[in-house]
Specification:
This protein is an alpha+beta fold and 193 residues long. The chain has 2 domains: 81 residues, no CATH class; 104 residues, no CATH class. Strands 1-5-4-3-2 form a 5-stranded antiparallel sheet. It has a 5-stranded antiparallel sheet with strand order 6-7-8-9-10. It is globular, with a radius of gyration of 20 Å.
Length: 193
């Protein structure tokens, strides 16, 4: 998701992506669009993506540009926003991690669903890397488990808080991914959920 100042900004970013990608790739028919419940959605045409197993898509929703690996992902996100489904800030994982961040260090919050992100990297990122990989390394990828379910089940989310201080910026994180608290870019302390 990309957050913009207002709805006009989100619409401008979406339009710019739709116009820029065909120019960069020199393929005027790369991008398709359609309306979905009052939102204009764009996606890259699958037949134009060769061996890529995904059809990246995006749509403006208020001041946000929602990005997804397919039109279905974007549509599900739009549907959740429409039905006002509770967000991640209501999950037990988020609440627990927030308690690990000292109150004075809480500022702009970024939460990463680490198991979901790791699964996405495994199921989306690795196949994309394999497309560019030398032929002699491809058997190693073929030997990896095909189903990512359960591989990352033991991870918790990761929470990052960034706040301004009198003399700079401080970032503190907590979660299953080892991370440090930084002040002026120097590690000062480690947190683990």
């Amino acid at each position: 998701m990309v957050q913009t100042v207002d709805a006009a900004g989100a619409a401008a970013v979406s339009d710019a992506l739709a116009k820029l990608l065909p120019v960069v790739t020199d393929d005027k028919e790369l991008v398709a669009s359609a309306d979905y419940k009052g939102h204009k959605s764009w996606w890259l045409k699958k037949e134009k993506l060769a061996d890529m197993p995904y059809t990246p898509a995006w749509s403006a929703d208020g001041a946000r540009v929602l990005l997804g690996s397919s039109t279905e992902v974007v549509q599900r996100t739009l549907a959740r926003a429409e039905t006002k489904t509770p967000g991640i800030d209501q999950t037990e994982d988020f609440k627990r991690l927030l308690q690990l961040i000292p109150p004075l260090a809480r500022g702009g919050i970024l939460y990463i669903n680490t198991p979901e992100a790791a699964t996405w990297g495994y199921t989306v990122g690795l196949p994309l890397l394999a497309l560019e990989m030398p032929e002699e390394l491809r058997p190693r990828f073929a030997a990896l488990p095909q189903d990512a379910k359960g591989l990352f089940a033991g991870l918790t989310g990761t929470l990052l808080s960034i706040t301004g201080t009198d003399d700079g910026v401080q970032a503190v994180s907590a979660g299953s991914v080892p991370a440090a608290a930084f002040h002026y870019g120097r590690p000062t302390d480690f947190y683990s959920a």
